Amino acid sequence: MKTKSIVFAALSLTAVTFAQKKEIKSAEKAVESGSYAQAKTEIEAVSGMMGQMDDKEKEYYYFVKGRAYLGGEDNKNADELLKAMEAFTTVNEFNGGSKYGEEAKQFKQQAMNAVISSAVDDQNAEKYGEAANKLYTLYTLTPKDTSYLYFAASNAVNGQDFTTALKYYTQLKDMGYTGIETQYTAVNKEDGKVENFNSKQQRDLFVKAGSHEDPKTVVTESRAGEIAKNIALIYVQEGENDKAVSAIQDALAENPDDDALLRSAADVYLKMDMTEEYEAAMDKVIAKDPNNPGLYFNLGVGAAKAGNNEKALGYYNKALEIDPNYSAANLNIAALMLAKDKEIIEQMNSLGNTKADNAKYETLKKERLKLYADSVPFLEKAIAGDEPNVEAVRTLYNIHIQLGNTAEADKYKAQLDALEGK
After folding, report:
1. Residues 332-361 pLDDT 10s
2. What are the sequence ranges of the domains in the chain?
């Protein structure tokens, strides 16, 4: 009797195993026919029998499950696509992925591309929270692709979810993520677009074949500075200034000569009105790039924010020494000059009708008109670019009315109307 029981048990187990294979095979046939809903129902029905499957059957099960949730090429359901990726990832955990591993890898990439496309669509539609969730899940399924965690953090910031963003940025910082990549590019002769290649060898083959030209090797900038800055700025946003300063100083202690980090530190100090620290950080940046007018312009902005207009003017003029046509510097100099107009008007309005007051009034009037005239060259350079500042054009129009320059006023009025679509 005991022997018969063992035989019956063995026969029963064989029958169950056979049923599992049959169900998985049926789900696979449904996939092949494009009946993905049916395939998902059938493959999920087998999930309760996982404990009775051997490694070969489990490998087969997860492969079919991945294909069922991957669906057709038009599938844009991110939840299903992520389930597909998870299943394809699990394929290699059983039987070494010896039978379906390579195919699973290809299908996983297909699912990944679809999820990325979905996340990009969310980002463009300003659904930043959804984009962040999809990208973070991609990172968990492909932990070597740390850039997904970086983009998840960026979307969390855009979605004002600072708690999640801080969590992701802290993970990136702790793992030493820099985002530095070596890119191998060449220009496609057919459409003139720059294309990236997986390796130098692959790019060189296309160039040698004659389909591409102008090969370049580009090393991208480090994102470490941006990450440190964003961590600090989130702390500032949350009112935790001590943590913000600590975060940026810890980063600088590890990388004191990192240009991007120094710029990020300056941004944080400026945000926190730490003028001395801001200027010290910017001085280090300028020492590395002394002929960059934008750096002096930024110092000017910082000085103006701190209420030191004379220092700001000096920095703006330094920027113009390097590039006389630097639009933003010209515009800000004009703005600083014209800021004195309010003070002059207040003085004029405070005067009485005495002979002395009338004389003072005329003197102030001339001073005001001179101020207008002196600002004109800076404003003209400020609007000389391809995209002139509308307010600068409006200011020039009003100034020439005050100066009595009718022809010039008409010219700027026409330009203003064109910019405003009138």
Report:
1. 999 999 989 889 999 999 989 899 989 999
2. 17-125, 182-219, 341-419
Q: Token match 């059938």: residue?
A: 42
CB 64 within 8 A of CB 101: no
- Tens digits of residue pLDDT in 80-114: 999 999 999 999 999 888 899 999 999 999 999 98
Q: According to the 3-state scheme, what is the secondary structure of the chain?
A: CHHHHHHHHHHHHHHHHHHHHHHHHHHHHHHHCCCHHHHHHHHHHHHHHHHHCCHHHHHHHHHHHHHHHHCCCCCCCHHHHHHHHHHHHHHCCCHHHCCCHHHHHHHHHHHHHHHHHHHHHHHHCCCHHHHHHHHHHHHHHCCCCCHHHHHHHHHHHHCCCHHHHHHHHHHHHHCCCCCCCEEEEEEECCCCCEEEECCHHHHHHHHHHCCEEEEEEEECCCCHHHHHHHHHHHHHHCCCHHHHHHHHHHHHHHCCCCHHHHHHHHHHHHHCCCHHHHHHHHHHHHHHCCCCHHHHHHHHHHHHHCCCHHHHHHHHHHHHHHCCCCHHHHHHHHHHHHCHHHHHHHHHHCCCCCHHHHHHHHHHHHHHHHHHHHHHHHHHHHCCCCCCCHHHHHHHHHHHHHHCCHHHHHHHHHHHHHHCCC
Which residue, 108, 163, 156, 104, is CA-closest to 128?
156
Pick the CATH number of 17-125 from 3.40.50, 3.30.200, 2.60.40, 1.25.40: 1.25.40
Q: Where does the pLDDT of residue 422 fall: very low under 50, low under 70, confident under 90, or very high at 90 and above?
A: low
Which residues touch 271 (CB under 8 Å, ≥6 apart)?
233, 236
